[in-house]
Amino acid sequence: MVRMKREWPDEGDLVVGTVHKVLGYGAFASLEEYEGKEAFIHISEVSSGWVKNIRDHVRENQKIVARVLRVNPKKGHVDVSMKRIREDQRTRKIQQWKIEQKAEKLLEIAAKTIGKDLDTAYEEVGYKIINEFGDLYEAFETAAEEGEEALISREIDGEWAKTITEVAEKNISPPEVQITGYINLHSYAPNGVEVIKSALGSVESEEITVQCVGAPRYRLIVKSSDYLTAENIMKKAAESCIEAVIKEGGEGEFQRELE
User: Exposed e or buried b for every residue in 219-244, given b needs 16+ CB within 10 A?
Assistant: First the structure.
């Protein structure tokens, strides 16, 4: 159960639920992000096509993503629709929910480290983090990348900031992106093969992989923490290779993408 600071969802929100009862006219699902709340999906909101048998579309214990149509706190009703969302929205919401599940588990680990339970963690720091960062995972990711000062600067208690950072550094891998570029290298020197091999070898590293596509074309694969850094690394590597070959009387050309 990933906890939201709000007690009820708003109309238009996407919610994750677990179906626990299926009837001929609709289904009931427990809302994963709103403790003790359930949603009702009318048979007309299960699928965009004609539904002959509701169980062909929804079953007990199934995880669903739905859009909130109406909320009536006085009656305790949340009406939702499974058909009024796109597949990409459904996929993104499930991914987001899974990430927040992981973040809540990390918060629980941090709480246990200082002798507290998850309820206390939410009261002392969890809801504040959600207000400051938008969600729990963003705070853990920030702590892993920037350290505890990034939390303290947002007025997160020092003990919590230190513990959350320690847990984040152990459990969250830095983000990684990968980009690909191509260079064409020609050498007219008697030892042209060695010239090109030396130029390419000079840029190979943990961040840069060089592959031969088929002479004179070579592939550069760059891995980094973000796209801007990766692009800069790619550009410098390509320029270095081409410059080394030109110095020996050859020529070179860089392409960011293979045409």
Answer: ebebebeeeeebbebbeebbeebbeb
